[in-house]
What does this fold into?
Amino acid sequence: MGLLGRVVNTLGAPIDGKGPVEHDGFSPIEVIAPGVIERQSVDQPVQTGYKSVDAMIPIGRGQRELIIGDRQTGKTAMAIDAIINQRDSGIKCVYVAIGQKASTISNVVRKLEEHGALSNTIVVVATASESAALQYLAPYAGCAMGEYFRDRGEDALIVYDDLSKQAVAYRQVSLLLRRPPGREAFPGDVFYLHSRLLERASRVNAEYVENFTKGEVKGKTGSLTALPIIETQAGDVSAFVPTNVISITDGQIFLETNLFNSGIRPAVNPGISVSRVGGAAQTKIIKKLSGGIRTALAQYR
It folds into this structure.
């Protein structure tokens, strides 16, 4: 796929100055998620490279694991490190930057390049200077690129950085369209905005892949693992958008300002952080070794 190693905008046009993108077709950005029959249970791990996450809050291939916390708590750093860790694992990565400064995105691309992970990654960018409509559509465009690999029996990882900015962009568009505002001035369908996006991250069975590729790929399952990021205000997890996304995802990694400031990196709060399906994806030895960590930490704190 010609998009790997490239930086593109929401419409798939290159913005990295490396010439036109070689492609073998187009796909719609809005797709209905795979049904229950087409899915397979999550039983293979995605190693993030963080011992605390891989031991206590394991992530499986096809899972949706939310990274949530205040600003400057290391959310993007954790997601980027997870992408870098997939360099030799065969997992293709998509990084979607929504409403961020161009300088921040430039640093992310440079970091991926330095660690040899850019050749395995597609970076989709909708900067803060772009229209609200493009910021709102960027995650769906990135998801369509990730689904390309999933539907062909490969494993992919997608990071949405961050979905709270997408919700703000969607609120702007909705208010301009004179749609009735609800709680925190968000429109009534802001839950559907995120649920239809995150439901597309899944592990699909071999039959689905075989049907999609018309028999070209046989006996392989595909997966799209999502790491959405949500920024909270003053640690308020009970705000409208955070609670919505927590209810859609299969668990969350909560990063705390106090832990970050006291020098604990990653600043994961093991009390609030959970992984609802990742335990099934852990190898037996890691499961055995990590069994008492959470209890020991709870007693220590």
User: Anything to note?
Assistant: The radius of gyration is 19 Å.
